[in-house]
Write a structure and sequence with these properties.
Length: 226
């Protein structure tokens, strides 16, 4: 086990059974003209974490540990998108309508792609999820069980929406979850801070939190090839 200094107490990472989950680092949320922008958010905050997320992905690739990428994405006919979700937020452009990067949150559209700096490579899992959580209607339980994954490290956007929902779903399924706090971001600084405190409160009710540097150092000290 790799002992990672974390809050609320050290996280024991099992190097043979750990995967990284990078949540929704897609243009829809990170670039102007996408879904996040249509909801009235300042998207610049999210772009700033790309180098840290890239560093985290690089750490996992060096160890040959599994990397999973998710995208919030609907079928072109929107049959997997409840009308309530389309109406929600009274956005300037709704899910499925055409924006500057194609149809919002629709599979295959330019805006639905993961940003170039974090693009998946062969052997990594890419999940299109119609909800905020990564297990709902995705079939992800199967591939994780087949690979014997018991520990999940989380990154991505946004902290209090898709990252927190996915981490809670994973926690309920028995996964040991660590959120890398500088590899996640919200449109609202106060929501990110609150989400992190909710995760670690009550003895780590949803999991653990640590910065990338702590994880890198722990992996290096454990003698893994960094
Ligand atoms: N709006 C917002 O903060 N997030 C989302 O709609 N989706 C994700 O978090 N990916």
């Amino acid at each position: 086990m790799i002992d990672v200094p974390a809050r609320p107490y050290p996280y024991l990472l099992d190097p043979r059974h750990t995967a990284l989950v990078v949540i929704d680092m897609q243009r829809d949320f990170i670039e102007k003209g996408g879904f996040g922008d249509s909801l009235g958010n300042d998207v610049a905050r999210l772009e700033a974490i790309i180098p840290t997320v890239a560093g985290l992905i690089a750490l996992f690739r060096k160890q040959s540990w599994l990397v999973i990428h998710t995208r919030e994405a609907h079928r072109p006919d929107l049959s997997d998108c409840p009308p309530s979700k389309i109406r929600r937020g009274n956005p300037s452009l709704k899910i499925g309508e055409a924006g500057a990067m194609g149809r919002l949150l629709v599979r295959g559209e330019p805006g639905n792609q993961i940003v170039d700096d974090l693009a998946p490579i062969d052997g990594e899992i890419v999940i299109d999820k119609p909800g905020k959580g990564m297990f709902w209607a995705t079939g992800l339980d199967g591939p994780l069980a087949e690979r014997g994954i018991t520990h999940l490290v989380f990154a991505g956007v946004t902290t209090e929406v898709c990252v927190q929902t996915s981490m809670r779903e994973a926690n309920d399924r028995g996964f040991e979850c660590l959120l890398v706090e500088d590899a996640t971001e919200s449109y609202f600084a106060e929501f990110k801070a609150a989400a992190i405190e909710m995760i670690v409160a009550q003895g780590g009710i949803v999991g653990w939190v640590a910065p990338l540097g702590a994880l890198e150092k722990a992996v290096a000290e454990a003698g893994a090839h960094v």
